[in-house]
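Lab meeting, item 3. Inverse folding demo.
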């Protein structure tokens, strides 16, 4: 199962990915987590992406594609992959198709978590207070959201045309959203 959890920052992709990892043994491939780990380790890559991330921009396609390619190899044989925060551009979506195709696989399901902007801002403000993630501050969050609408949301029709897109209401409680995601997974089998 190659599942893309799709949605704006603050939609709950990370929370739901972690649950699916625990309950189903899927592997979560979060490019945001990988980039934060690179920064924390003080690597060259971490230094290169720091400014872009702090400004709420998108790091280059080639960087995140390489990270994903590497992890697909490291975790080969896993019962499923959850792509969290990837792809975010058309170039990334095409690269993902090619990476999966070379392994005899494809994107099986894209679950789009719909959450309105006011609720996203509420959630991110809370996360900023609780976790202090620098790019959750209101000004940077606004830029991240802008990037989402400009670069990432246009991928929705692409997956819809292929018949792999399921839209869910991401506004409810974690339990309610979990139920919707589990139903979507069941439906796609
Ligand atoms: P996230 O944790 O997914 O919200 O990602 C945090 C930040 O990492 C984003 O605001 C971007 O700067 C960067 N980032 C994460 N994933 C990607 C991606 N697929 N393409 C480009 N930039 C990314």
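The presenter then showed the designed sequence:
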């Amino acid at each position: 199962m190659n599942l893309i959890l799709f949605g704006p920052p603050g939609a709950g992709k990370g929370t739901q990915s972690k649950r699916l990892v625990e309950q189903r043994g899927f592997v979560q491939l979060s490019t945001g987590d990988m980039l934060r780990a690179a920064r924390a380790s003080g690597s060259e890559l971490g230094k290169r992406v720091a400014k872009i991330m702090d400004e709420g921009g998108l790091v280059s396609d080639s960087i995140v594609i390489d990270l994903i390619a590497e992890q697909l190899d490291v975790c080969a044989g896993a019962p499923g992959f959850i792509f969290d925060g990837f792809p975010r551009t058309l170039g990334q979506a095409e690269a993902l198709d090619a990476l999966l195709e070379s392994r005899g696989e494809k994107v099986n399901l894209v679950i789009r978590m719909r959450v309105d902007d006011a609720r996203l801002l509420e959630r991110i403000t809370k996360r900023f207070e609780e976790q202090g993630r620098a790019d959750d501050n209101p000004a940077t969050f606004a830029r991240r959201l802008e990037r989402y609408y400009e670069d990432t949301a246009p991928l929705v029709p692409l997956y819809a045309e292929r018949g792999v897109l399921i839209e869910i209401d991401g506004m409810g409680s974690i339990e309610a959203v979990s139920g919707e995601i589990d139903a979507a997974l069941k439906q796609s089998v």
